Amino acid sequence: MACYAEVVAHSRSLLFVPGHRPDRFDKAAQSGADAIVLDLEDAVGPEVKPAARENVDRWLSSGGHGVVRINGDGTPWHADDVAMLGGHQDVVVMVPKVNVPHQVADTLAQLAAGSRAIPLVETAAGVLAAEKLCAVPGVLRAVFGNADLGTEIGVDPDERAAFAYPRSRLVMACAALRLPPPIDGVTVRLRSLEAITEDARHAKAMGFTGKLCLHPSQVPVVNEILSPSDGQLAWAREVLSAAEDGSICQLRGQVVGTPMLERARRLLKFAS
């Protein structure tokens, strides 16, 4: 497999799997998700966190891949999580509840060279510091945490209007820093096809190109919606063909200039 960070940078679906359930690791990896997130934090109770850490250590040591969501700094488990990851190469770590840049930088400083971080922006302070968090060297991509942020501000995590600002701020931060577009948060209604479909469409409309999944049934929906459609790809090829030399031209009554050419190139690159 290519460097796992490159896989994660372009992943549409990222499926959570609890670290204390090693029987699910391989199933998650075979689920069709572009990447999996081995969770040591919220999905794992305090009594089983040491066992979860050992499970993830064995999985990575055996050649398995996955983003690892560690416990946040200030918790009793953070140092041991980071120490375990320090023994591995090609690490992609999801750092939860980040409010200030040093929380990301300090974690990366303890990992092998070339390791990458995904800050989980899920607090009000984190949203306001989004640009600084994304500017930390080694940040691969950012992810929006609607569930924890909703709890902090007293809003249902499914309430899209309340999260328009933080979502847009994260999208803009990633774009300004030339990072891949961010990953959207979870859909907690696991068995609702309508809910995951609407949420994935909303994420795409806001500028996200990835989404966290809590159940394998959500994966194919997310993959389909966050992939460029056949119509979009046909448009992209037609645009690039019409302006082969990169000059401005007309296509179906519309001006094709540099912004449209760049969008067409990005669509085709993402599709590949």
UniProtKB/TrEMBL annotation:
Mg(2+) binds at residues 122, 148. Substrate binds at residues 69, 122. It comes from the Bacteria. Residues 12-216 form the HpcH/HpaI aldolase/citrate lyase domain. Keywords: Lyase, Magnesium, Metal-binding. One of its GO terms (molecular function) is magnesium ion binding. GO terms for biological process: oxaloacetate metabolic process. It holds the Pfam family HpcH_HpaI. Its cofactor is Mg(2+). This is CoA ester lyase.
